[in-house]
Structure prediction request, 235 residues.
Amino acid sequence: MTTFIDDQLVVRQKTTPGWPELVAGAAAFAASYALVAVALPLIEDDATAGVVGLVVSGLMGMIALAAAVVIRIRGLSAFGIRRAKKRHLIVGAALGIVVCAVGSIGSGLYIVMSGDAQNIQTTYQAGAAGGLMSLLVTFVAGSIITPIGEEAFFRGVVANTLLARLGPWVGIIGSAAVFAVAHGINPVMVAAFLVGIVTAILFRWSGSIWPGVVLHGVNNTAALILPVIIAAAIN
Prediction:
């Protein structure tokens, strides 16, 4: 039995990303992140900065995935880019609503306990509130491009590698922690950690990044739209 389990582990490790892919992807993501951190503040209009920020968030993940792929050329299915079952997608969509609600509560508790009330999503929300066209562009950027790029790297490479090499506990919690820190030390970090936990679990369950993309997209849509709706109702 032990030999069979060991053999299965070896097979899994040969068909999933390893440390070289993780290091290459992380280096590409870090380089992209540094470039964006310098360039994005140069955009003075909040709505434009918000849309650009969402687009580049997705592009950074895609660049990191590409860097990981070229280390050892293999099919994208090794990175979880494979068809998901309909029930996995439905569960992802439902959990997106739950995660958004719980994450908002967690971020609120973080603010109360830390006194850090900074809103790093001001520019994103400005994009959503900038008229119909701006709202549509923000939706495409934040609810489609960003989730695809971030899930491709943080689940398809980071969680995938940690799950295969270090097991489910380290894989799920470790990848979620990396995802949270990538969002900065601020109230959003709490919500990002929760998104990272649940999407990593979905990835392990389904073997695909797409249920996590759906969850991520639903969560981002709610986070972008709800403040606009609340502000309109108050005014």
The chain is about 80% helix and 0% strand. The CA atoms of residues 128 and 136 lie 8 Å apart. The chain has one domain: 2-73+85-234. The radius of gyration is 18 Å.
